[in-house]
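Forwarding these from the shared drive since the link keeps breaking.
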Amino acid sequence: MTFRRLPLATRRQCLQSFGALTVASALGKTANASTLPEAKLLLGGTLASIPGQFGELAEGPISKGLGLDTPIQLQPDLGQDGVTAANLFDANEAPDGRTAIVVPGATLLASLTGDSRVHYDFGRWIPLMLARTATVVVGRIEMRRSFRMRIEGFFHNHSVRLAVSRASGPELSAMLGLTLLGMRPIPVPGFVSAEQALAALRDGTVDAVQISPCTMNIPLAEVLKSLPAGTAPLYQTGDISDIQAEQIPNFLEAYQQVRRKPPEGLLYQAWQGVSSSTDTAVTVALPMLTPPDVVMQWRKACALAVADSGMRHWAELRHFSLADGANAAPLLSRATPPLNATLALRRWIAINTPRWRSGQETRPL
């Protein structure tokens, strides 16, 4: 059999076509390798909780961003503080990128305070997205004086009854903050909602409350306008976008007005972690050692979720600010104080827990 030699131009065309097919095949294999066959969001709460609401809103955008053939699975938890879900996440989930966790700030706070149920380390997680909220501490003060004199007068080394859900609950941020500012707070437990706490402030049952706009059904501006007579905001933490709330001093400003110096020390470092945990409404994260290409894929998917109109509307109603990608990591780091500060926090809690149970004033270290 005689083989006829092809013209040079034809041979070049054949080689180019073969090369193009090879590159396309390689790209196809790479794309298929980076696409997860299935994925799951492990929710630190029921579908009605904040993590559950996030999961239902993010289901479509994240499924699209990950290139899933079927919608991402939502696995809710019966608990409300995310501790059970976080324990399962650290113990059972492989770092293959198939499972991301969605937990509230209570999960971070439980770890900081040394909750005996905690068997996870959120400091080892790879953050994908955070939703941040804010808190405002309101107290009964002398309204006829200037704002600076009110702040100084309120924090003048006397006891103050603070409405709390429980002694080591989210109001721990206000408990420790008021202690640092020179007060001797006494927790008054049993107030599960901001509305109940504000009613107790109005009735004189308590002297101070911590409110978070994300837990209330009315805008923060309306809450501040309708505060009980003789009360006013003392300081605020977190991310507040409300124009009226921006006029409230943050904790650092309030501290400098009272103490005439910037805050320092282990308990202040611990308060920064506690406050940041309290102001973190949602954390979305992957296990440590998840492959970088899979992490990048999840981050792109979370970016789609953040840009989704339904998600943004939900965040606006809840007074959340959303951060994804490289902006999420520093926010989670704020909730992780140095080890010696964490130990100081737990020692402070251990010293004061018996006092809180008997209705006594808080002691500093």
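-- next protein --
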Amino acid sequence: MLDERMPKIRYCEKCGRPNVGTDRCPHAMNPKYMCPRDREARELARKLRRFGL
């Protein structure tokens, strides 16, 4: 009964932050969002924006 009320805590595989709390990671909440601390994904997104994708 207690487990139903507690959120399932997941951790980001890029930065290790959880999906709950004040310092949460959007990638841990939903994998389709980019981790803000993932430098490689940030650079790739920047390059794709330059190409208009």
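The chain has a mean pLDDT of 88. The chain has one domain: 8-52.

- D.
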